[in-house]
UniProtKB/TrEMBL annotation:
Gene3D superfamilies: Enoyl acyl carrier protein reductase, NAD(P)-binding Rossmann-like Domain. Pfam families: adh_short_C2 (PF13561). GO terms for biological process: fatty acid biosynthetic process. This is Enoyl-[acyl-carrier-protein] reductase [NADH], chloroplastic. Catalyzes the NAD-dependent reduction of a carbon-carbon double bond in an enoyl moiety that is covalently linked to an acyl carrier protein (ACP). Catalyzes the last reduction step in the de novo synthesis cycle of fatty acids. Involved in the elongation cycle of fatty acids which are used in lipid metabolism. Required for normal plant growth. GO terms for cellular component: chloroplast. It comes from the Eukaryota. Its EC number is 1.3.1.9. InterPro entries: Enoyl-ACP_Rdtase_NADH, NAD(P)-bd_dom_sf, SDR_fam. PANTHER family: ENOYL-[ACYL-CARRIER-PROTEIN] REDUCTASE (PTHR43159), ENOYL-ACYL-CARRIER REDUCTASE (PTHR43159:SF10). It comes from Phaseolus coccineus. It is an enzyme of class 1 (oxidoreductase).
Length: 422
C-alpha cells in the first residue's frame, strides 16, 4: 500500500482517535515513510520540482514532506489531505535535494500566531451602539474589545450624549475604564445615535423640535455609518447593545399596538438597520453581535410590552442575517443571551434585583454574573478563535437557560439539592 493511501486512511479516522493513539500512529507512519522513500537521502527531503506543479502540505502533527498533487480532495475530517498516485514523481534528470519542514495545516498565517490562543484584536476597529453609561453590557463589551487591542467607537443615544461625554471628560468613568494592565480604555470617538430612525426622512417633526435633540446632527443610522466611513474608513466589529420597550411593565394583553411595535423597532429592527448600513464598510471576516435575553423562549412574567417578542425576533433575525452577511462579506452574526444585570437600563424593568436573586438561587453556577463575562464572550466571538461560529445564540447566564424548574421552590424542599458551600 502506498504511503499516501495509508495517510489518507489515517486522516479520515483522525478525529475519532485519542491523542495517545494518534501519536503512536503518526510515529508508525513516519517510520513507514522513511522506509518507503529510502531512495532519498532522508525522509525529510524532496526534489526541486517546477513551480507549475501543484503541491499540498500534508501534516496532522508536524510531519515532514511535500507531495506533488493533481488535485486536492476534501476528507470528512478536521484536515484536508491531498492524495496522489504515485507517492512521488521522479524524473531521469539530475535531482537536487533540500530539506523541508511542514507544519500542521491552518487557515491562519503562522506569523500572526501567538502561544496560548490569545484573543488578539489588534488592528481591528469596533463600533458599539447603545453605550450611555459605564455599568451596562455595552460598556463591558467595549472594555473587553479594547483590552484585546481593538479601537473603540461608540454610538450613544442622543438625549444621553451630553451627560455621557461630560462624564468622560471629567474623569467620572476613569475607574471603570481601567483595563487589566492598568491602562485606561481609549475611546476614539463617540457618535450621537438614535437607531429608531434609519435616515433623516424618517425623523418626525416633533422629534426634530425636541430640545433633547437640539444641537445634535447626523444621528440617524445611515448618517452615523456615513460619518464613521468618512472618519475611519472601515470597521471590523459591530455591536448592537440596544433595547427599549415603552410599555415593558405592561402584560402582553394590555400592550398597545404602538407600544408593541415600538419595542420591536428599537430592540430588534434596529439590528437589521445597523447591519444594512454598516455592512458596506465592514471588512471581510468581520463580526456582528447583539444582546438577547431568555424571555425570548421562556415565560418571564413582568417582562412585557412586547419585549419578549422583540428578543425572539432578534434571535430569528440573527440566523437570517448570518446567512446574508456571511454570503455577502463573510461577516459572522451572533447574539449573546446574557443573564440579568443590575444596569441602569435594566432598572426600568422594575424587578431586575429579583431576577438576579432568582438566577443565583437556581442557576447551575451559584455565583454573581459579571458584565465582564459577557464582554469577554463578545471579544471571543469577534476574534479568529470563533471563525466558524455564526447564526448562534450564545448563553452567558451561569447556565440558567438549562433549568426546567426553579429549585428554590418549596415543592423541592424535601429533595437533597446540592448547594455551593462557602
Amino acid at each position: 500500500m502506498l504511503f499516501c493511501d495509508v495517510l489518507d486512511r489515517f486522516c479520515i479516522s483522525y478525529t475519532f482517535l485519542s491523542r495517545s493513539r494518534c501519536s503512536a500512529i503518526i510515529t508508525h507512519l513516519y517510520e513507514m515513510a522513511t522506509t518507503t522513500v529510502s531512495n532519498f537521502p532522508t525522509a525529510m527531503s524532496r526534489p526541486n520540482i517546477s513551480s507549475s506543479q501543484r503541491f499540498a502540505n500534508v501534516n496532522p502533527a508536524n510531519f515532514g514532506g511535500r507531495f506533488k498533487v493533481d488535485s486536492c480532495h476534501k476528507l470528512a475530517s478536521v484536515c484536508h489531505v491531498a492524495s496522489t498516485q504515485p507517492f512521488l514523481t521522479m524524473t531521469a534528470a539530475a535531482v537536487k535535494y533540500e530539506k523541508i519542514r511542514t507544519n500542521a495545516m491552518s487557515v491562519f498565517s503562522s506569523e500572526n500566531e501567538v502561544p496560548g490562543l490569545p484573543i488578539d484584536l489588534k488592528g481591528k476597529r469596533a463600533f458599539i451602539a447603545g453605550v450611555a453609561d459605564d455599568n451596562g453590557y455595552g460598556w463591558a463589551i467595549a472594555k473587553s474589545l479594547a483590552a484585546a487591542g481593538a479601537e473603540i467607537l461608540l454610538g450613544t443615544w442622543v438625549p444621553a450624549l451630553n451627560i455621557f461625554e461630560s462624564s468622560l471628560r471629567r474623569g467620572k468613568f476613569d475607574e471603570s475604564r481601567k483595563l487589566k494592565d492598568g491602562s485606561l480604555m481609549e475611546i476614539a470617538k463617540v457618535y450621537p445615535l438614535d437607531a429608531v430612525y434609519d435616515n433623516p426622512e424618517d425623523v418626525p417633526e416633533d422629534v426634530k423640535a425636541n430640545k433633547r435633540y437640539a444641537g445634535a446632527s447626523n444621528w440617524t443610522v445611515q448618517e452615523v455609518a456615513e460619518c464613521v466611513k468618512k472618519d475611519f474608513g472601515n470597521i471590523d466589529i459591530l455591536v448592537h447593545s440596544l433595547a427599549n420597550g415603552p410599555e415593558v411593565s405592561k402584560p402582553l394583553t394590555e400592550t398597545s399596538r404602538k407600544g408593541y411595535l415600538a419595542a420591536l423597532s428599537a430592540s430588534s429592527y434596529s439590528y437589521i438597520s445597523l447591519l444594512k448600513h454598516f455592512l458596506p464598510i465592514m471588512n471581510r471576516d468581520g463580526s456582528a453581535i447583539s444582546l438577547t435575553y431568555i424571555a425570548s423562549e421562556r415565560i418571564i412574567p413582568g417582562y412585557g410590552g412586547g419585549m419578549s417578542s422583540a428578543k425572539a425576533a432578534l434571535e430569528s433575525d440573527t440566523r437570517v442575517l448570518a446567512f446574508e452577511a456571511g454570503r455577502k462579506k463573510r461577516v459572522r452574526v451572533n447574539t449573546i443571551s446574557a443573564g440579568p444585570l443590575g444596569s441602569r437600563a435594566a432598572k426600568a424593568i422594575g424587578f431586575i434585583d429579583m431576577m438576579i436573586d432568582y438566577s443565583f438561587s437556581n442557576a447551575p453556577l451559584q455565583k454573581e454574573l459579571h458584565a465582564e463575562e459577557v464582554g469577554n464572550t463578545a471579544a471571543f466571538l469577534s476574534s479568529y478563535l470563533a471563525s466558524g461560529i455564526t447564526g448562534s445564540v450564545i448563553y452567558v447566564d451561569n447556565g440558567l437557560n438549562a433549568m426546567g424548574v426553579g429549585v428554590d421552590s418549596p415543592i423541592f424542599k424535601e429533595l437533597d439539592i446540592p448547594k455551593e458551600h462557602h
